[in-house]
Amino acid sequence: MILEHLGKKPRIDASAYVAPTAVVCGDVTIAAGVRVLFGATLVAEGGSITLDENCIVLENAVVRSSARHSTHIARDCLIGPHAHVVGCTLEESVFVATGASVFHGATLGARSEVRINGVVHVRTQLPEGATVPIGWVAVGRPAEILPPDEHERIWAIQKPLDFPQTVYGVERPAAGESKMPAVARRLSELYRSHEDDKTL
């Protein structure tokens, strides 16, 4: 399904392939040789999404942008099934494996890898050729790559990167309070804009 969103239409090279059950919505540019497979979703929410030549987005992967964070995926990258890639930059020949997540403001250097269920946190800078092992977490600028059971070390680096502000534009609430009411209201208003999307 190809959708116009906020007056922006996807631009898809004639040599690219978008599966009939994939969704491409808004300010998305898909270059020559790109393959977007079944169930994959590419949604530009204010910012743009660009996939350079020969990128592969496999089944049920999600690629998103936001008004603050566009997404650029350079040539020869592979986004695995069920991966989540949002508001970030992938340099050439990056591999994001099944179930991995790459968050807003992150940059993955050329030839880096995020293996199965790995996480690259907001505003993290992963160097060229680096590997995030299966289930591990990369966080910080430059990235520290840590096992998931080291929550306190991860949090010490992650907290000043300010996930709520970076992702949602919401101030971190006081201890014991939830950010979710502010987040839910903000996203409800944002996603209301899809009521006017046009199928192309």
Radius of gyration, in Å, reads 17 Å
Secondary-structure content class:
alpha/beta
> Judging from the principal axes of the Cα atoms, what is the shape?
globular
> How would a textbook summarize the main sheet?
10 strands, mixed
Residues in helix, %: 10-25%
| pLDDT < 50 stretches | none
Mean pLDDT: 95
- Strands side by side in the biggest sheet: 23-22-19-16-13-10-7-4-1-24
Strand portion, in percent?
A: 25-35%
Q: What series of H and E elements makes up the topology?
A: EEEEEEEEEEEEEEEEEEEEEEEHHHE
- What's the number of extended β-strand segments? 24
Count of helix runs = 3
In whole angstroms, the N-to-C terminal distance is: 8 Å
Structure description:
The protein has 200 residues and is α/β, with parallel strands linked by helices. It is globular, with a radius of gyration of 17 Å. The longest helix is centred in the C-terminal third of the chain and has 12 residues. The strands form 3 sheets. A 10-stranded mixed β-sheet has the order 23-22-19-16-13-10-7-4-1-24, with helices on one face. The protein contains 3 helices and 24 strands. Strand 22 and strand 23 form a beta hairpin.
